[in-house]
Design a protein that fits this description.
about 230 residues; alpha+beta; Double-stranded beta-helix; binds fe (ii) ion
Length: about 230
């Protein structure tokens, strides 16, 4: 096992675009997130700053999804469709976990500015499983991180995000897949995500706009209306 493997540089996981142009942001995000091997992080954090409002922020998320779908179509012939979309206040600490979804899926999470501090971490469980000779699904059943059974084995594969600034708008893109690695049939390789909220405050909010995206045949209509994200 190579403990150096997941030592991602700041630039590889943190984006701070000068302009909120969805096309150019998508060109940076897609290769970092939609990985089919272990040469990319499988996640990235985009700091959008504070010069935007919640409605504009959700529009940017929708535009980013559309642009990423275009990149995915050009690369694979398939597109991206929303599986779910929601907006909620969340201040609970969550262990490293995979959200329930199909074998190949992405999360695009939009964090609104909050006075509640939080930290985010990712673990490259797909690479860890690969190094152990397991499929991601086998890894999750043998080392379920929700119960703390994977803390030691995942430590060299875990990255704490150095740019998760609670006072700014942030979009976090995560490869949430559990597909097995294959040379002959490339499939998205996922990572686990978790958040720590050291001091929850019931008088404050920590709003997350949460969407899950799946790779689907081109032309498939969205089953979830993204306007659900709009107030
Ligand atoms: Fe989650």
């Amino acid at each position: 096992m190579n403990a150096e493997t997941r030592n991602w540089s700041h630039e590889s996981i943190c984006l701070r675009p000068r302009e909120l142009d969805a096309e150019s942001i998508a060109a940076e995000v897609a290769p970092r997130t939609c990985r089919v091997d272990f040469d990319a992080p499988g996640f990235c954090v985009i700091n959008v700053g504070r010069d935007i409002n919640p409605v504009g922020f959700r529009q940017l998320m929708a535009d980013l999804k559309r642009e990423m779908a275009g990149i995915h179509e050009a690369a694979s012939g398939k597109t991206l469709a929303y599986l779910s979309a929601g907006r909620f206040d969340q201040q609970e600490t969550t262990r490293l976990h995979l959200d329930g979804g199909p074998d190949e899926c992405l999360l695009m999470l939009g964090y609104e500015p909050s006075r509640v501090d939080s930290e985010m971490a990712f673990a490259d469980y797909a690479k860890c499983a690969f190094d152990l000779g397991l499929s991601p699904e086998q890894f999750m059943s043998e080392y379920n991180p929700m119960f703390g059974h994977a803390d030691d084995v995942l430590r060299p594969y875990t990255t704490r995000v150095p740019c998760f600034s609670p006072r700014d708008y942030r979009i976090v893109c995560i490869n949430n897949s559990c597909a097995a690695y294959s040379d002959s049939r490339p499939a998205w390789q996922g990572v686990l995500h978790g958040a720590t909220v050291p001091a929850p405050d019931a008088s404050e909010s920590r709003v997350i706009n949460s969407t899950m995206l799946a790779s689907v045949p081109a032309g498939t209509p969205d089953t979830v209306d993204v306007s659900q994200l709009t107030d």
